[in-house]
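Sequence, please.
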């Protein structure tokens, strides 16, 4: 049995050596080079055609997502869009591999399967050494896509790069393309992405807390501030809106106003809105600001989860309950002591 295994291994090695020898000599052959060029060209053209058709489907899906008012529908369509964009890269790769496989069978029709497997293994070793960075990109991209870190249309901030943020435009297994707020197109290799900060719904919700002596005058301050703040998809997405106004003391009201900004434009509320409210209040004959305004993030989902965490953390362990002794048990204990 051992001799049989050794003979089989020797035959496989010999066949692999012969295949590699024929391959090197075949590459120099003009006929082999023509077949290889035609195979690769056809694969690339088919890849372009498929990519063009799938990108047309992506545009249609994106248009449907923009029309829908249902957030679940939008997220579902975005996932479809991401999967189709990924499939473009996978289909192109498969077509290219098939082109090389077809060329191999056409040039070496008498090659045995074991020899092809052996040659492929040796080729894989050489390719993995030469294309190590690309393979690491592919591995990182595969894991990120399997775990659904982000998708096309999401706003992300890439770690560990502080200023690298924008909307995801394209995803492949090797790289990610994002567009920044200033219009820059940023390409990044997937292996360099250590982490991703995903902005829910693609906007930041900011809140202003202010205490005033007159509730109506305080709301007027917010209305005047809105008229002086720039509104737009890349600026203040929605202006300040009063969501609560309650009296907390004698001639003291607590007003909370919420606004939505594009990611990276939080300074419109944190700085510009705060400075405007203070400046407008100083111009009044009788200022109404008692304290503030104070800016903070106001994500409802984050508030709900943090409040649940804090509530559970404040719970105290229940006191241990002592088992109540029955009258018969007490009588037995008393009889034992007497005895």
């Amino acid at each position: 049995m051992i001799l049989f295994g050794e003979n089989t291994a020797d035959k496989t090695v010999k066949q692999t050596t012969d295949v590699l020898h024929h391959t090197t000599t075949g590459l120099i052959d003009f006929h082999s080079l023509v077949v290889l060029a035609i195979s690769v060209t056809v694969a690339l053209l088919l890849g372009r055609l498929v990519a063009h058709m799938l990108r047309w489907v992506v545009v249609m899906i994106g248009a449907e997502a923009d029309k829908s008012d249902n957030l679940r529908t939008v997220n579902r369509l975005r996932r479809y869009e991401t999967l189709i964009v990924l499939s473009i890269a996978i289909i192109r790769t498969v077509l290219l591999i098939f082109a090389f496989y077809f060329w191999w069978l056409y040039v070496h029709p008498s090659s045995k399967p074991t020899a092809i497997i052996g040659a492929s293994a040796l080729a894989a070793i050489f390719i993995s050494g030469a294309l190590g960075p690309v393979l690491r990109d592919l591995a990182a991209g595969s894991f990120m896509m399997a775990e659904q870190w982000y998708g096309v249309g999401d706003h992300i901030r890439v770690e560990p790069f502080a200023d690298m943020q924008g909307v995801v435009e394209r995803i492949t297994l090797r790289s990610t393309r994002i567009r920044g707020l200033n219009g820059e197109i940023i390409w990044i290799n997937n292996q360099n992405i250590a982490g991703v900060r995903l902005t829910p719904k693609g906007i930041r919700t900011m809140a202003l807390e202010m205490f005033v002596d007159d509730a109506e005058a305080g709301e007027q301050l917010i209305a005047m501030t809105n008229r002086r703040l720039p509104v737009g998809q890349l600026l203040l997405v929605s202006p300040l809106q009063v969501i609560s106004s309650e009296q907390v003391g004698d001639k003291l009201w607590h007003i909370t106003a919420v606004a939505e900004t594009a990611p990276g434009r939080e300074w419109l509320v944190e700085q510009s809105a705060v400075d405007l409210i203070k400046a407008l209040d100083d111009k009044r004959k009788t200022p109404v600001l008692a304290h503030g305004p104070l800016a903070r993030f106001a994500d409802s989902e984050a508030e709900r989860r943090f409040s649940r965490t804090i509530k559970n953390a404040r719970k105290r362990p229940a006191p241990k309950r002592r088992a109540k002794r029955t009258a018969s048990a007490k009588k037995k204990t008393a009889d034992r002591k007497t005895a």
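The beta strands are 155-159, 165-171, 175-179, 185-189, 195-199, 204-212, 236-249, 252-261, 289-297.
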